[in-house]
Amino acid sequence: MDTVAAIAARSSFNTTASTPAANVTADYDTFLQLLVTQLQNQDPLNPTDNAEFIAQLASFSAVEQQTQTNAKLDLMLTYLNIGEGAALIGKQITSADGKVTGVVDSVRITDDGLVATLAGGGEVLVQSGVVIADPGA
Questions:
Q1: Which residue, among 45, 35, 50, has the nearest Cα to 1 in the 3D structure?
Q2: How many beta carbons lie within 10 A of that of residue 107, not counting itself?
Q3: What is the pLDDT of residue 131?
Q4: 0.90 exceeded by pTM
Q5: Using CA atoms, how far apart are residues 90 and 132, in angstroms rounded to an integer?
Q6: CA atoms within 13 A on the CB side of 56
Q7: Domains along the chain?
Q8: Which of 119, 124, 137 is nearest to 96 (CA)?
Q9: Cα separation of 60 and 51, whole Å?
C-alpha cells in the first residue's frame, strides 16, 4: 500500500485552488485516484473487507453527489447574477467610493461579480456600498 501513501502525500486534500468548486474537483479526483490505486495494489490473498469496501463506495457516492450539487448551485448563482444585472440597466449607479457615477448601459459577470458599464464610459463593480437609483426619480 506504499503507492496509496505516496499518492496521498503528493495530493493534498486541502488544495490551494482559486475557487471552492476547484477544491471539490481536486478532492474528487484525488479520491478516485486513491480508490483505484488501493484496488490495484490490494493483496489478492487478503482482499479489502467487504464492509470497508462498501463504506469507501458510499464515500465515493457522497463526494460525487456533493460535486453535482455544487455545480448546480454555481449555475443558480449565475442565473441570479444575470437577473440582477438585467435589472440594473438604465439605473443610476454610484461606486462605493463615490468617484464614479453614471447610467448603466450594460452589465457583465466576472469572477469578482457583476460589473456595470456606464453609458458615458467607466465601470463599476457592484458590491457593498454601491448606490443604485432610478434616474427619473
A1: 35
A2: 21
A3: 92
A4: no
A5: 10
A6: 15
A7: 2-82 (no CATH), 89-133 (2.30.30)
A8: 124
A9: 14
